[in-house]
Amino acid sequence: AQKITQTQPGMFVQEKEAVTLDCTYDTSDQSYGLFWYKQPSSGEMIFLIYQGSYDEQNATEGRYSLNFQKARKSANLVISASQLGDSAMYFCAMREGRNSGYALNFGKGTSLLVTP
Amino acid sequence: GAVVSQHPSWVICKSGTSVKIECRSLDFQATTMFWYRQFPKQSLMLMATSNEGSKATYEQGVEKDKFLINHASLTLSTLTVTSAHPEDSSFYICSASDPTGYNSPLHFGNGTRLTVT
Fold this sequence. Notes:
The complex is a heterodimer.
Chain A lengths: L3 E2 L4 E5 L4 E3 L2 E2 L6 E8 L6 E7 L7 E2 L2 E6 L4 E6 L8 E9 L8 E2 L3 E6 L1
Parallel strand pairs in A: 2-12
Antiparallel strand pairs in A: 1-4, 3-9, 5-6, 5-10, 7-8, 8-9, 10-11, 10-12
Chain B lengths: L3 E4 L2 E4 L5 E7 L6 E7 L5 E8 L5 E2 L8 E7 L2 E6 L8 E8 L8 E3 L3 E5 L1
Parallel strand pairs in B: 2-11
Antiparallel strand pairs in B: 1-3, 3-8, 4-5, 4-9, 5-6, 7-8, 9-10, 9-11
């Protein structure tokens, strides 16, 4: 069963605007972590932001913030003041407490295109 | 920050040959490394968990005799694609976390694009 669901295959946003990328997850664990990564066309995976299941505050890292709604099991990424360089694939990922070796399970990703 | 180096960045090989991909943690020790595979426009799929000094743990459906993983030291894991076929053409990417723990991000190498002709 899919543990991470990203329902938006592609998104457009105009430069300087904010955009929200959706992510829902499924787990029965109490302890888990949620991560967002950016993958430019070059293929590298760039870590953006982390939210722990016990964190009461939404995580923020510069222009990135995570809208964490635990009861709804959603962890949406908000990018403020979009830049052309934000155009990339964005992956939501989860690590569950029971995962052996702390591997991450990834969603299918959302392709973001920032237009001038 | 933690740096993971992967080599080569790309490789083209003929069907039936073997290809070795190296993954190194440059500034930290990684007792565990992870190998992922990504087909074009798809997600990252975990292939195996590489454990230093012991056998790798493979995900369901991944042939351990085809994808040989060796983690001989705390800074090096290798993935060897044996008897490669065109369907093995893919993007392979390794990762590790420093420190380990469920709140630590994985740091990724830059990936290896394998093309089997």
